[in-house]
Design brief:
The complex is a heterodimer of chains A (480) and B (260). Chain A has one domain. In chain A, 25% of the residues lie in helices and 34% in strands. In chain A, strands 5, 6, 8, 10, 11, 13, 15, 16, 18, 20 and 22 form an eleven-stranded mixed beta sheet that branches. In chain A, strands 4-3-7-9-12-14-17-19-21-23 form a ten-stranded mixed beta sheet. A two-stranded antiparallel sheet of chain A has the order 1-2. In chain A, helix 1 crosses helix 13. Chain B has a single domain, classed as Rossmann fold. Helix content of chain B is 36%, strand content 27%. In chain B, strand 11 and strand 12 form a beta hairpin. The two termini of chain B are 12 Å apart. Classes of the chains: A alpha/beta (480), B alpha/beta (260).
């Protein structure tokens, strides 16, 4: 059987996505001012409303203080020491993959995502965000046939300004929080997806993010709109090169689901976590929120978070329409000196709304893992339900798991259930596996994967496989 | 050469002396029953042989196929053919029973330089062995021991033994907590796996298992020592008279009970 071999191979290697592509950068100087924002907007040839919006966000940001309530520790970030925009140099707009910088294509090949092959085989349309500018987009024709718009954010601003204007900031307003506001001011690119009424998106959409140019903060912005009765499944996978300096990643994702629409958003996050001594690694401070706006709409977040020095995010759902459904399935792993403060918010506004939260936290090494969740069922949201299950698994004795649930139910016909457990990886389980001839490392991987199964089964098949691989790589050296 | 030879084994758990000098030799193909009251050290012996590291061996040695068993890791012992049917098999949520057993078998086969079994071949093997313990195939799709009844867990242990094909099987109170039907099924499974080149240690509190699985030798463990060895008659006598009968007889330390 090859799985065990695979696991062994994986556990024996270093973080493999740590390479840097040599591409000439077209980068702004370090620092942040109105001038920076005007330059970004000008470089992207944006319409006036975008610049205005960015500037409003920036002015608001100047009045804000960086939050400190989260259960993570990091040295102060110097926002004037960040490069806010860098784009690979290129001649003109690209017509096909042939025109993509071969260096960039090589990078994708190393990551195992050759675009050509994906075009042929995988049936996945990829909007590859390379640093800050999208360099290649595939499967557009097929999607266009169905009326699905899937393009870079910059392109959407140019081609569909009305849609952008209508939905941008409608779920995460530019005043929302320190990092979302910063993102609103300086975001460089991202993905835009619009699935029109009654259309079931014919393929899984995916975006691969890479942070490449040194010290370039990456500020992605994703907006997905599913009109009445539409369905879309969106996959986001992240890997980043080795760095010894912390890098800020402050993305914003907004989802809007109208009546009977469904959005499934899956993430495998594997940003560089820093080395075993806790040096380097990505700060992943992300705001993700969906508005289940229409009747019987549904939004599901599934995330597997194994990377980043610090992960700080709460993919949330506002259950606005009656009978709306919100789901959150999460695996968060912290090893070595990684810190994660993650969870979700389910805000029930509509009647008969349902939400489910399944959170699996794994702590190893000196990792600190916090689940923070808010379930709020408002007065008008009668007959609503929430089920929360929150499990923590500890490997070793120097790591930590914390659970901070907050539940507010404001009407008598609604109900919220919360189950939580914390367990150490059992000596008994481990010995049972060893006695059957299974090596310690394989046994740990097996037990941890079993622990996460409820979440993995929510992932699209190929992503589930990738997620399991990631877990075994991330657990390397955490026992024994 | 004996398959297993235990010499003067002393074991401490959390500062307490549990085994106080065990001598025991098991030859290939032999089935030995180790009986004794609660707290006599039966399960400790089983766990030490399997390689549990919560026990400290303070004196003595254990030879398995002539080699020092105690210096081997638990997984190396498994590869060498030592199998322990656990008294309390653990649950491993989310890990399929079939997947677990196939992983174990292939880990052992790989280490022995044998080709791994693919899913189809494994399924065929598992189906055959499932019949022996009268288990439905649906057990294979459930998580390891999760939600299994006591009897199902014990049958699952025997299934694992049947698939992993050990040279020395140690059955730690596999009969405890079973109703008469489950006991019969398990005994049949055990009997079906008696072979000239496979030895078994049956650790049990009660004599009744030995009605179904007839041992070659019976040893009585009391207070960390083997106080009496004999054949099946000893077990019957013990059932009649109770353990106190032996304990009263053996006040003074006796290491004479070991079989030759």
């Amino acid at each position: 059987m090859s799985t065990t071999n695979e696991v062994r191979k994986l556990t024996e290697r270093e973080y493999e996505h740590g390479f840097v592509t040599k591409v000439e950068d077209d980068a702004l100087p370090r620092g942040l001012s109105e001038e920076t924002i005007r330059l970004i907007s000008a470089k992207k040839n944006e319409p006036a409303f975008m610049l205005e919006w960015r500037l409003r966000a920036f002015r608001h940001w100047l009045t804000m203080k960086e939050p400190t309530w989260q259960n993570v520790r990091y040295p102060p970030i110097d926002y004037q020491d960040i490069i806010y925009y860098s784009a690979p140099k290129r001649k003109a707009a690209l017509q096909s993959l042939d025109e993509v910088d071969p260096e960039i294509l090589k990078t994708y090949a190393k990551l195992g995502i050759p675009l050509e092959e994906q075009k042929m085989l995988a049936g996945v349309a990829v909007d590859a965000v390379f640093d800050s500018v999208s360099v290649a987009t595939t499967f557009k024709e097929k999607l266009a046939e169905k009326g699905v718009i899937f393009c870079s954010f910059s392109e959407a601003v140019q081609k569909y300004p009305e849609l952008v204007k209508k939905y941008l900031g409608s779920v995460v307003p530019y005043t929302d929080n320190f990092f979302a506001t910063l993102n609103s001011a300086v975001f460089s690119d991202g993905s835009f997806c619009f699935v029109p009424k009654g259309v079931r998106c014919p393929m899984e959409l995916s975006t691969y993010f890479r942070i490449n140019a040194a010290d370039t903060g990456q500020f992605e912005r994703t907006l997905i709109v599913a009109e009445e009765g539409a369905y879309v499944s969106y996959l986001e996978g992240c890997t980043a090169p080795m760095r010894d300096k912390n890098q800020l990643h402050a993305a914003v994702v907004e989802l809007v689901a109208l009546d009977d629409a469904q959005i499934k958003y899956s993430t495998v996050q594997n940003w560089y976590p820093g080395d075993a001594q806790g040096r380097g690694g990505i700060y992943n401070f992300v705001t993700k929120r969906g508005r289940a706006q229409g009747r019987s709409s549904k939004i599901s977040w599934t995330q597997v978070e194994t990377g980043s020095a610090i992960t700080w995010k709460y993919p949330s759902v506002i259950l606005q329409g009656d009978n709306a459904v919100g789901e959150f399935y999460s695996v968060a792993l912290t090893n070595n000196y990684q810190q994660a403060d993650t969870g979700t918010k389910m805000i029930h506004l509509g009647k008969n709304t349902r939400s489910t939260i399944i959170s699996k936290g794994i702590s190893a090494g000196r990792g600190q893992n916090t689940y923070r969740g808010l379930v709020k069922i408002l007065k008008a949201a009668t007959n609503s339900r929430n089920f929360t299950q929150c499990d923590s698994l500890l490997l070793g004795s120097k790591c930590g798991a914390h659970t901070i649930p907050d539940i507010e139910v404001r009407n008598p016909s609604s109900r919220a259930e919360h189950e939580a457990s914390t367990s150490k990886i059992g000596e008994d389980q481990l010995f049972y596996c060893l006695q059957r001839g299974i090596s310690q490392e394989d046994a740990v991987t097996m037990i941890v994967n079993g622990f996460c199964r409820q979440v993995f089964k929510e992932l699209p098949m190929e992503f589930a496989v990738e997620a399991q691989k990631l877990l075994s790589v991330s657990l390397e050296g955490s026992v024994g | 050469m004996h398959l297993l030879e235990i010499r003067n084994l002393h074991v401490v758990v959390e500062g307490k002396q549990i085994l106080k000098g065990i001598d025991l030799a098991v030859d290939p193909g032999e089935v030995h029953a180790i009986m004794g009251p609660n707290g006599s050290g039966k399960s400790t012996l089983a766990q030490v042989l399997a390689g549990r590291d919560t026990f400290t061996v303070t004196e003595g040695q254990v030879l398995y196929q002539g080699e020092d068993l105690l210096s081997m890791s638990p997984e190396d012992r498994a590869v060498a053919g030592v199998f322990l049917a656990f008294q309390y098999p653990v649950e491993i949520p989310g890990v399929g029973n079939m997947y677990f057993l196939r992983t174990a078998l292939n880990a052992i086969r790989r280490r022995r330089g044998l080709e791994e079994l693919d899913a189809m071949d494994f399924l065929a093997l598992a189906k055959e062995k499932l019949k022996l313990v009268e288990m439905d195939q649906k057990f294979m799709n459930r998580s390891v021991n999760e939600g299994f009844s006591g009897g199902e867990k014990k049958r699952n242990e025997i299934l694992q033994m049947a698939v992993l094909d050990p040279k020395l099987a140690i059955l730690d109170e596999t009969d405890s907590g079973l109703d008469i039907d489950a006991l019969r099924i398990i005994s049949n499974g055990v009997n079906a796996h008696r072979r000239d080149d496979r030895s078994m240690l049956l650790i049990t509190h009660y004599q009744r298992l030995l009605n179904y699985v007839v041992p070659d030798k019976v040893h009585v463990l009391s207070n960390g020592r083997i106080v009496r060895s004999g054949d099946r008659q000893l077990a019957l006598e013990l059932e009649e008279k109770g353990y106190t009968w032996l304990e009263q007889q053996v006040e003074a330390p006796a290491r004479s009970g070991a079989s030759p």
